[in-house]
Specification:
The complex is a heterodimer of chains A (about 650) and B (about 210).
Chain A lengths: L16 E5 H11 L4 E4 L6 H14 L2 E4 L3 H13 L4 E6 H14 L8 E7 L13 H7 L3 E2 L4 H18 L3 E6 H4 L1 E6 L17 H12 L5 H14 L6 E4 L5 E6 L2 H11 L6 E6 L1 E3 L3 H9 L3 E5 L5 H13 L4 E3 L17 H12 L14 H6 L12 H15 L5 E4 L24 H13 L2 E7 H18 L4 E6 L28 H8 L3 E5 L4 H13 L4 E6 L3 H11 L6 E3 L9 H5 L5 E4 L4 E4 L9 H5 L5 E3 L2
Parallel strand pairs in A: 2-3, 2-4, 4-5, 5-7, 6-7, 10-11, 10-13, 13-14, 15-16, 16-17, 17-19, 18-19
Antiparallel strand pairs in A: 1-8, 6-12, 9-11, 20-23, 21-22
Helix pairs in contact in A: 1-2, 1-6, 3-4, 10-13, 11-12, 15-19, 16-17, 17-18
Chain B lengths: L9 E8 L4 H14 L4 E5 L9 E8 L13 E6 L2 H11 E10 L6 H4 L8 H11 L3 E5 L1 H8 L5 H11 L7 H11 L2 H19 L2
Parallel strand pairs in B: 1-4, 4-5, 5-6
Antiparallel strand pairs in B: 1-3, 2-3
Helix pairs in contact in B: 1-7, 2-4, 5-6, 5-8, 6-8, 7-8
Classes of the chains: A alpha/beta (about 650), B alpha/beta (about 210).
The complex binds iron/sulfur cluster (SF4) (2 copies).
């Protein structure tokens, strides 16, 4: 018998060196730091933090859950922290926008349990709709902001941040980015803190009194918060995450924070500038250790600030330099004449090496093998856009909606997408999403479009996104009788972020059975006058249903329900079921490309040498939608 | 195998498209390196992992490695699970004289099937790889080999075996085998090890 494999992040083997993903390292830090409650809503790049905690939660007697949005997750953690437990709330950067409201209040409630808010920022927008620098949100909320440089430091910080948070009775922000979350590195495991506290609701704790007192006695509630900030600034001076790593002989210095530190460090080595350029590594970017920075600045004539996205550190350092060294020249993003670090996209060693070379007046590195004669090779490299998986139910849903619009000859329409895999309906060949804003916005934006134009406004939203943020918008549409059409693509998972369960599945993060929230019950409960439920793999029935919904004179909802194709493949594999791919009968195929040009499943390939389509059986998962689309019945089910 | 006591920097890319098992392959190599006491950084982008977009893992091993991503022209070895993805990464990342291990089975982008883009032939790709400066190129249709083993998804293990068999990895093949054995169990382990050995032999004989 083979024993069950225990993933390295769950091992109780202090001292062992293992490979961990940044997100797993943070989760491990939660375990080593005695965290007891974790709540989150999935969002790349932060999703694996809660997944990992949920994975070992049972084993170590702690609690982890997915909430239906970040605001709720943050409120759950706030409650737990106010009752004295160590807690962590992790989310992607724009999730923090949702949590902002309770965050601005919990900072005034003096929670007794250590409380870490993890913000997963996404420079370069690997899987996000914007580049947002959440360090400014930490500052807005008056909470300290910590930026680890690698998985090992992320774990170490997490453990320590529980203590810091408890000492100041204030939530803290662990600000990470994709290149921390999704980086694997070697990490040494520490001991697991086994203390399990019992939460208290005692009357003497100050958060229960605070709201009762403030309204009556007009205590300025922000004052204690501002006092904490001052003390945290002091404390930042002595934390080892801020350190001068190298002294420079030439009065040149670099300040680098978070992941950027790695690029700066490699760049100094690569340009042979060791001993010439001083390096200050910052692991705390708010509030900054002013004395440490003042001392550093006083030794320099010129400074380069290396950080991703906004000039957050640079702004503060500029202010410090007024006193510490007014003559210093600061290079980074702010001063138009000294702009060396881009404000958009993530950095890398190459970008930083170039900036540093210019800053230090040494030759810029030339990447080998990048000669101009390779331009021709470059043109040969076929671009590859993102596309939905073969068999994705969203592709079928989009196709059917388009057919219904065509059948009804609707010309004046706009389609507002939302946050999820179905957003890829905007790519060829379907190209049918006109725009989108944030989570759940399709429901509200489509109402504005409908009111403004009187035309047909259609929202497309996923199951998880609808439950996250779509419900209030739909209530408004019903209330005001705004005649939007809303397509809820229910693929029974939060697919885009890694197939997490959601309220509609009834399964919890710790893989227990909770209660199932049926989307149609929610929609019916709101009182929507027209509701259609379809299986997108049945093409003609679905086109009929869409036609009825589009024709309906009032707000209408179509729930298109079919499990995510990737999940279906995985399930089949687990159950030992063989999915039967489809085949193109070369006798019948006329090479018209209807299947490819109107539907475009990646498993459908066109062979120009034979002028016929064929199906890549390594991709086809047997949904059979294309066989209902081919006008010549040339696509047939396999054996 | 290049065994280096004092390895400063070795850069490997595993390139493919979402769903090809890229991440597992990179995790195995990196775990093997940690097992051998190396400092390791692996940078990956997960966003498109399930959706047929290009996915690359940058595996960096050595005492002077900090950055989790790679700069242009610094890869020592590229393991390509798909031909055009191999070319895309080679063009940007391979250092002159670096090595390539490539699966020759294409996954054709929708735009190509629509007739909007062209997919280069294998000959064109090989010629281009050489022009960029690849010294050693090992290539074969690993997907067909995997299909013969009865499961197309073990292609990644075949390619992992091929990388080990190329002699271009600074990690012992034994450490890689050990990690696979730790990670998987039962018939799945057997199949994956078989795939690994198959790739190893294929690569050796080229
Ligand atoms: S992961 Fe699922 S929902 Fe997302 S594109 Fe693939 S099949 Fe569709
Ligand atoms: S399979 Fe059918 S739709 Fe596709 S190219 Fe052939 S005839 Fe046209």
């Amino acid at each position: 018998m083979s024993r069950r494999w225990i993933p390295p992040y769950a091992l109780d083997e202090p001292g062992r060196r293992v490979l961990l993903l940044g997100n797993q390292a943070i989760a491990r830090g939660f375990l080593e730091g005695g965290g007891q409650v974790a709540s989150s809503y999935p969002g790349t790049p932060a999703s694996e933090i809660l997944e990992t905690i949920a994975d070992f939660a049972e084993m170590y007697g702690i609690y982890a859950e997915w909430a239906d949005n970040e605001r709720v997750a943050f409120e759950v953690c706030s409650g737990a922290a106010m009752c004295g437990l160590r807690t962590m709330c992790s989310m992607k950067h724009i999730g923090v926008n949702w949590a902002m409201d309770p965050l601005m209040h919990v900072v005034l409630r003096n929670p007794t349990g250590g409380f870490i808010l993890v913000s997963g920022d996404d420079p370069s927008q690997h899987s996000s709709a914007n580049e947002q620098d959440n360090r400014f949100l930490a500052r807005a909320a008056c909470i300290p902001c910590y930026e680890p440089s690698d998985p090992a430091e992320a774990k170490e910080m997490t453990v320590k941040l529980f203590e810091i948070s408890e000492a100041y009775r204030l939530p803290v922000m662990l600000r990470v980015t994709t290149r921390l979350c999704h980086v694997r590195g070697d990490v040494v495991l520490g001991p697991i803190r086994m203390e399990r506290r019992k939460g208290k609701m005692a009357d003497d704790i100050s958060w229960r009194k605070t709201p009762r007192l403030t309204g009556l006695e007009r205590i300025p509630p922000q004052k204690p918060l501002h006092d904490k900030e001052e003390k945290l600034r002091e404390a930042a001076e002595s934390l080892e995450w801020n350190r001068v790593e190298a002294n420079g002989g030439e009065r040149l210095g670099v300040i680098a924070s978070g992941v950027s530190y790695n690029y700066a460090r490699e760049a100094i080595g690569r340009l042979g500038l060791e001993g010439k350029v001083a390096l200050l590594k910052l692991g705390i970017t708010y509030p900054l250790p002013e004395k440490l920075i003042s001392n550093f600045l006083s030794e320099l004539d010129r400074l380069l600030v290396v950080e991703e996205l906004e000039p957050f550190v640079e702004l503060q350092v500029k202010a410090i330099s007024k006193e510490a060294n007014p003559k210093i020249e600061i290079y980074g993003k702010l001063d138009p004449a000294r702009k060396l670090i881009p404000r958009e996209f993530e950095l890398n060693t190459f970008i930083v090496s170039n900036a540093l070379a210019e800053f230090a007046g040494v030759p810029k590195p030339v990447p080998p093998g990048q000669g101009a004669e390779l331009g021709e090779v470059g043109r040969m490299v076929t671009p590859r856009g993102l596309t939905m998986c073969a068999g994705c139910p969203h592709r079928a849903t989009g196709y059917e909606l388009k057919q219904a619009l065509r059948r009804l000859k609707v010309e004046d329409y706009i389609i507002i997408g939302d946050i999820g895999c179905y957003g890829m309906l905007s790519y060829p060949p379907l190209r049918m999403i006109d725009t989108y804003l944030g989570m759940g916005s399709s429901v509200g934006v489509s109402q504005g479009c409908a009111r403004a134009t009187g035309g047909m406004a259609i929202g497309i939203i996923g199951d998880s996104t609808f439950l996250h943020a779509g419900i209030p918008g739909l209530i408004s549409a019903v209330w005001n009788n705004t005649k939007i059409k809303l397509v809820i693509c229910d693929n029974m998972a939060t697919a885009m972020t890694g197939f997490q369960p959601h309220p509609g599945t009834g399964v919890t993060a710790m893989r227990r059975q909770g209660n199932k929230v049926e989307i149609e019950n929610v929609v019916r409960g709101i009182g929507i006058p027209c509701l259609e439920i379809i299986d997108p793999y049945k093409v003609s029935e679905s086109v009929e249903a869409f036609t009825r919904a589009l024709e309906f004179d009032g707000p209408a909802v179509v729930i298109s329900r079919r499990i995510c194709a990737t999940e279906a493949v995985r399930l089949a594999r687990r159950q030992g079921v063989r999915l039967k791919p489809y085949f193109v009968d070369p006798e019948k195929c006329t090479g018209c490309r209807t299947c490819i040009n109107t539907f475009g499943c990646p498993a459908l390939v066109y062979d120009p040498s034979k002028s016929k389509a064929w199906i890549d059986t390594t991709l086809c998962m047997g949904c059979g939608v294309c066989s209902q689309i081919c006008p010549f019945q040339a696509i047939i089910e396999g054996e | 195998m290049k065994k280096m006591a004092n390895l400063k920097e070795f850069n490997l890319i595993i390139a493919g498209i979402g769903g090809q098992g890229n991440l597992l392959a990179s995790e195995i190599i990196a775990s093997a390196a940690v097992r051998e006491g190396r400092r390791v950084r692996v940078g990956e982008t997960f966003g498109a992992a399930q959706r047929g977009g290009p996915v690359a893992s940058y595996i960096r091993i050595g005492s002077e490695v900090y950055s989790p991503i790679l700069d242009p022209g610094r890869a020592d070895l590229i393991v390509g699970l798909e031909p055009v993805e191999t070319l895309r990464n080679t063009l940007r990342f391979l250092r002159p004289g670096g090595g390539i291990v490539m699966n020759t089975r294409p996954i054709v982008p929708v735009e190509v099937s629509m007739g909007l883009q062209k997919y280069p032939s294998l000959e064109e790709i090989l010629e281009a790889l050489r022009r960029i400066g690849a010294e050693r190129i090992i290539y074969f249709d690993a997907t067909s080999e995997a299909e013969r083993l009865g499961m197309a998804i073990v292609m990644n293990m075949i390619m992992l075996g091929a990388a080990a068999g190329s002699g271009l990895l600074p990690i012992s093949t034994e450490a890689i085998r050990q990690v696979i054995t730790d990670r998987l169990a039962g018939p799945l382990l057997e199949l994956n090890l078989k795939a690994f050995e198959l790739g190893f032999e294929k690569s050796r004989s080229q």
